[in-house]
Amino acid sequence: MARCPFATWRPISGSSGPHLGGPYKIVHHTTEGSSAQGAMAAFQQNRSDPHFTVDGSNIYQHIDTAEGARALRNDAGGVQTNRDSAVQIELVGFAHLPKDGRALTNLARLCRWIEQEHGVPRVWPSGRPLPAKNGKDPGGHNRDAKTWDTQAGHYGHCHVPENTHWDPAYSVAEADFILAATFSDDGALLSPAVPMRPAGRRGAKAAAPVSTMPDHGVTETGSPAHPKTAPR
User: Fold this and answer.
1) Where do the domains of the chain lie, and which CATH numbers do they carry?
2) I want to staple 217 with a disulfide (CB 3.0 to 4.6 A). Which of 43, 143, 195, 211 is the partner?
3) C-alpha distance across the termini of the chain, in Å
4) N-acetylmuramoyl-L-alanine amidase domain: from which residue to which, for each copy (predicted)?
5) CA-based Rg of the chain, rounded to a whole angstrom?
6) How many whole angstroms separate alpha carbon 81 and alpha carbon 73?
7) What angle do CA 231, 102, 229 make, to 5 degrees?
8) Bridge partners of residue 90, in order along the sequence
9) Residue range 180-189: average pLDDT?
10) What is the Cα–Cα distance from 188 to 186, expressed in whole angstroms?
11) Rounded to two decimals, what is the model's pTM?
12) How many Å apart are CA 156 and CA 99, to the nearest integer?
């Protein structure tokens, strides 16, 4: 059993089953929405739970990390994805926008716990996730199946074989901060913070951001923003 001691336990659909192999790895997603509550409603609707949902205020755990989550596509006859010892985190925000600095700090703290609990090294075996290009999928993602199946470390959803989503699209500064951040025993950030503006609305009259990933995204109430919200 592996439950994060500083996360709020919030089960939704349950696990996809025990892990079937592979070294432990951390998989980074973005929710393509603006709230944790909207994301969790979508997970329930689509049975697509990650292990964790993280925003600027909270860390929610939905599935014990000793078992598989549900947020990845897994084709029959190929490599395992959800059950390949992949600990999956959904960060509230959008792939094409800068990430909230407070949420990234919570994410990095959670990663330190997962790394210690499961022996995950602070590396990107398939390279850093590629940032958005003109607000869209930059292309050129490394989804090498052998790397995924044999190397522990951090991966973006964009690196997972059999999947087509291009999140989390971190900037270089965001990706480096996630691996470098250090914390005190009580969770205080000890290393330098990367200056980042909050993601989402810039003013009271600004329109809510909309996902540029056409088959992924939720509204504030958790209703699908696009026809397809199943793992890809």
Assistant:
1) 8-191 (3.40.80.10)
2) 211
3) 28
4) 26-168
5) 16
6) 7
7) 15
8) 29, 53
9) 97
10) 6
11) 0.90
12) 14
